[in-house]
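Re: [ENG-882] Designed sequences occasionally contain unexpected residues at chain ends

Forwarding the minimal case from QA. Structure tokens:
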């Protein structure tokens, strides 16, 4: 009984990418970097940099952003992710900037601790 040969045969079968694997990859979010949306332009606000980062999800876009600021020579970052979904990327970007400005006003530098 050749177990090593059997294992190679099974491995080869699972490496094949047919329509089922393609479907599963799409279903469970397997995507290539070329499909990622282009980064949105960062916005400066009261010494902070807001980098909107909407995430495509089920044909809509989830609100997301990175708020960063240089403090004592070190760049600090806070990731902002909310459950809000928007029908367009531009709407998600606008909402992310508005929400990030609220977080900055409410928390200031405390958001980094």
């Amino acid at each position: 009984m050749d177990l090593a040969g059997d294992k190679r045969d099974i491995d080869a079968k699972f490496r094949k990418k047919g329509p089922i694997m393609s479907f599963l990859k799409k279903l469970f979010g397997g995507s290539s970097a070329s499909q990622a949306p282009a980064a949105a332009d960062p916005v400066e606000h009261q010494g902070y940099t807001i980098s909107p980062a909407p995430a495509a999800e089920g044909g809509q876009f989830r609100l997301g952003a990175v708020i960063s600021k240089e403090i004592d020579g070190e760049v600090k970052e806070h990731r902002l992710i909310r459950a809000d979904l928007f029908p367009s990327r531009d709407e998600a970007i606008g909402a992310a900037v508005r929400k990030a400005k609220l977080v900055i006003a409410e928390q200031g530098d405390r958001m980094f601790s």
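QA comment: On inspection the terminal residues look reasonable. The longest strand covers residues 74-86. Proposing we downgrade this to a documentation issue.
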